[in-house]
Amino acid sequence: MASHDIRRPFKRPAISDQQRRRDISLQRQAQNRRDAQHQARCLASTILSLQPAQYEPAEPDHQLQLELEPELQSEIESDVQRQDLRGIDDVRQASRLKGAEARRWFAKQLMLPEWMIDVPERLNTDWYVFARPAGKRCFVVSSNGTTISRLRNGSMLHRFPSALPNGARTSNNSNSGQSYCILDCIFHEPDQTYYVIDVVCWAGMSLYECTTEFRFFWLNSKLVETGACNAPSTYHKFRFSTVPIYNCDHEGLNVAYTGPVPYVKDGLLFCNKHAHYQSGNTPLMLVWKDENCSQYVIDTDGKGQVPNQQQVVLELLFDGKLATSDDPPVIFGCLSGDFIKKTGLQAGNLLRFAISEGGLSFVGWKIRESGFALPRQTQPCSTFC
Amino acid sequence: MALEITQYLLAAQSPDAKIRTEAESALGQFRDQNLPGFLLSLSFELSNDGKPTESRRLAGIVLKNSLDAKDAARKEHLLQQWVSMDISIKSQIKSLLLNTLGSSVSEASHTASQVIAKIASIEIPRKEWPELIGSLLANMTQSDRPASLKQATLETLGYVCEEISHHDLVQDEVNAILTAVVQGMNVTEQNHDVRLAATRALYNALDFAQTNFENEMERNYIMKVICDAALAKETEIRQAAFECLVSIASTYYEVLEPYMQRIFELTSNAVKGDEEAVALQAVEFWSSICDEEMELQDYEVPESGDSSAPHSRFIEKALPTLVPMLLETLLKQDEDQDQDDGTWNLAMAGGTCLGLVARTVGDAVVPLVMPFVEANISKTDWRSREAATYAFGSILEGPSTEKLSPMVNAGLDFLLNAMKDVNSHVKDTTAWTLSRIFELLHSPATGFSVITPANLQRILGILLEGTKDAPHVAEKVCGAIYYIAQGYEDAGTSSSLLTPFLRDIITNLIATADRTDCSDSKLRSSAFETLNEVVRCSNLAETSQIIIELLPVMMSKLEQTSKLQIVSSDDREKQGDLQASLCGVLQVIIQKLSSADETKPIILQVADQIMVLFLNVFACRSSTVHEEAMLAIGALAYATGPEFGKYMQEFYKYLEMGLQNFEEYQVCAISVGVVGDICRSLDDKVLPYCDGIMTLLLKDLSSGELHRSVKPPIFSCFGDIALAIGEHFEKYISYALPMMQSASEVCAQMDDNDEEMVDYGNQLRRSIFEAYSGILQGFKNSKADLMLPHAPHLLQFIELVAKDRHRDESVTKAAVAVLGDLADALGSNIKTMFKDRAFFTELLGECLQSDDEQLKETATWTQGMIGRAFSVCG
């Protein structure tokens, strides 16, 4: 029988450089594999969103056309909606747009709610609800070390440094030049805070075609991490905040409707959980207002006084019908040919009516002029700041 | 049926190769034509006292090799062969073997006992040799049997116990065996050979005696017999008895308490006065106790001090007497122990044990050792100085930095001076101690180091001088430099401290590697390995110029190796070793320089030349590829990116060779890794080579011969290929997917009590997921539908893994990622498949709550992909 071997390593450092080289190679290969797969996964949204363009070679200049002739937009509504599912590439370009071009582009990008006129099916399971902050609806874009907010007509609200990815020129900003964010926000004047109600792009990744569920999740997990919710500082001029979002069950509705929030409420917003981010009005985002949850439910005059009668401004169409400026317009009624003839009204005129017990009564009109800014109280309620 | 084969067996041992080969082929022919007859003939030969010892011995060995083999597949084959043989032949063979135990020719009986054990290992678990134990025991109990039979029987019992599990026998049989063995060990046994055989049999049967060790009376008796045998007159018996104690130290640690006083006395006396062979075992007993206690401490629950098994703290209790005993051994050095690798003496064993004691008890060892160090380190006798230094070096691991740092700070200067000692043993141990100090007490990254900007220059000056000392001293010095460099890796601004010395260090290490006064290549390997660490850990921004200059130096050295004159296979081996070292250095340089954008172009500039050198290294061998060159090529492929394409045509044949190297499975594994590197570098340009590569990878997977550790990397590699070539992977689907599916079924059936298998299972699971991920992502844009039929199986597999309680984090990550890939690639098609599966929500929930940011992010992405798939109409 061989003697039990008791030799132990003696005075020898436990190094095997060869094993170490193998291990380091394996680690490097595993890391490279992770990177390659990660890249494949992130490109997911780009490739899918570019597909319409590839499959419709007949419309190569589609994008250009939109830029030049914005008024054609409604005619090619369906195409626009598809284009709105835009991928990283054109959103990234958009983030670099400046001046008038930027205004034009951003003017069409916000997702706008329709009025809630009936209860959608599966409201309690498929929808979120939250109390909408009162203030200026805007897109906030952080890129190239600065942050710009643009109102819904595309004009700039603020240019400022922020803690958003690539939102300020700070030495510790490790994001690459490719990194940028586009957030859908409401700027709430009283506490000078941007309330983020949706996210379109985060750190270079397009979330256009992700569901609301996912976008909200992403927003809630990412925003706080960046420090954007911290109090303002040198490199972070305005505070950002998320809003509390609830499932649309009985309890959620109740909290959203009556619960306290740190901001002035302006109605309730309902969002379908499965909807993608889509520019313009959509029935997958609904708004509700009543006097319990909004101070803007009733018109006020220039001095903030509630007039005796509520008024509404309607547009006269060619066939005598009266429509709101909603998109799509809501037909409210029609004027008789005699009345039109007598008053000399023309299609396109905006008419002010007072709402009384018996219906609408004509108050006056303004001729619509291009670029004419309507006084506040004449704006239909369905357009949002 | 049995044939006369004596002549063939003798001829097969002839010094004449021709005669030998003929005889071997004749025997082989006999075996192939009539296996039962062949085995029977061998048994007759072995059992026949009239035959020459040489032919009997070979008959026994051939017989044994017909029953057992190292390779698992072959072993299984031999087992089946034996089992299916005619029962009457088997009975004859077994009875011949049992008869041989009584042979007066000890070589024959000894061989027979080994063959019997092999048959027992097959038949006893199958209950096909119930009479074996009975007949062996009869040899022991009947008083008229000769001592030689008893001796052979005890030996057989030991071997049988070693081969089988005690669960294969009824407890009565186990008891009877142990009774027979212990009886044979008893002081009353007059025959020394029988007593020795019994003691050695007990050593083999210790694992067998679990039930008996649980019973206090039986245990007391066994321990008493062993302790008595440890005092036997014969050295061999004492040594065998101590070997039993060593084995008991690890097998039955938890019941040792009552015997420790006695064992301490025995070991202490043995260390002080017994023969070295016995004393070594006595020291080993304490080393084994340290191993046990360190393991118990590893599994201790930190807050409560509880551990599942009882910790008796034997070392702590014995410390005041144990440490002086060990220190005494340190003075018993051999004159030339540092030059001879084969030496293992009491001083070495004692110092090693002292190191283990320090790791077991920590700070408590320090005050017991330091007086010895201080008393001896300046003595005129070299043994005292060496012993003191060795003692000091041995206790550097275990005690706290707080306890050690004042002593080390105070002693460092003394040690540096001792590098100029007149005695080379003292210098050897001093250099080793310095390397231990730098390994354990030099960590600028965590804020503590015995090296300061003030003493660094002196330290390096002395060490660089030391590289010119005797080869064994220089080798230890390289170790010290290695750890100095390692400490500065990722050490922020501290890493700049080494920069001014880097050129000197590198020059010295190259000169050390070039030394020709060494008997073997150990010093050269150490010098190159240290050079690698120095390059790897250097601050690239400050040292890039030096490393860039090193590159052509190493390249020209590698070029010279192909001009070496090769006459013998020894020359060939030396050339291979040198090439290995140089390829290693080049790999490290390539990796270092390609890690920064500023220096990466350097590699691109010389890539052509480097590649030629590597191809030349490959060309030096005909049948195998050089592992180190392959490893370096992976680094080059990563560094060059798509440029690597131009080397493919030349390189491909070596890649093929590497992928087919089953025996050296490390080479195969590295080649598989290189395929991944190439895929990522070339993307779809790798396509022309994929048929060949896939064929070999599939062959590797189906091989029973290839080491299993290579198989997970192959699955991962499928993913790499699929991601690179996208839709072109379609043609491999019908081959790769069934392999992936059957491997996932293997995962489901793995033994989850075996820690090693759990580990392997996790690797396999992760790699299968990686394969699916690559294929799904690769097909996403155009061929995603191809994966539809495979999706339910994948989903089922993910579910299975999600519910596995042994799942590790990396498997979870891969599982969550592949879930997202499935949703990403198949879109709304997954709706029906996902609908009734709650597991993925749970899995995602678990991941989203994880502290691991990467995992959280992957899970979030996956959630988004699933959400998207569900929100798409259709």
UniProtKB/TrEMBL annotation, chain A:
Statement: the UniProt record of this protein carries the keyword Lipid biosynthesis: no
An example molecular function term from Gene Ontology annotations: RNA binding
Predominant subcellular localization, coarse grouping: cytoplasm
Record's GO cellular component terms: cytoplasm; nucleus
Residue stretches making up the Snurportin-1 m3G cap-binding domain: 109-286
Annotated compartments: Cytoplasm; Nucleus
One Pfam family hit: SPN1_m3Gcap_bd
Keyword tags: Cytoplasm, Nucleus, RNA-binding, Transport
Region (Disordered): 1-22
InterPro entries: Snurportin-1 (IPR017336), Snurportin1_C (IPR047857)
Stored Gene3D superfamilies: DNA ligase/mRNA capping enzyme
Task performed by this protein: Functions as an U snRNP-specific nuclear import adapter. Involved in the trimethylguanosine (m3G)-cap-dependent nuclear import of U snRNPs. Binds specifically to the terminal m3G-cap U snRNAs.
Entry similarity comment: Belongs to the snurportin family.
Protein name from the UniProt record: Snurportin-1
Automatic annotation (TrEMBL), chain B:
SUPFAM superfamilies noted in UniProt: ARM repeat
Subcellular localization: Cytoplasm; Nucleus
Alphabetical list of InterPro entries matching this protein: ARM-like, ARM-type_fold, IMB1_TNPO1-like_TPR, Importin-beta_N, Importin_beta, TPR_IPO4/5
Protein name as annotated: ARM repeat superfamily protein
PANTHER family: IMPORTIN BETA
Source organism, top-level taxon: Eukaryota
Lineage of source species: Eukaryota, Viridiplantae, Streptophyta, Embryophyta, Tracheophyta
Domain Importin N-terminal as annotated: residue spans: 23-103
Assigned keywords, A-Z: Cytoplasm, Nucleus, Protein transport, Repeat, Transport
GO biological process: protein transport
Main localization (coarse): cytoplasm
GO-annotated cellular components: cytoplasm
Recorded family membership: Belongs to the importin beta family. Importin beta-1 subfamily.
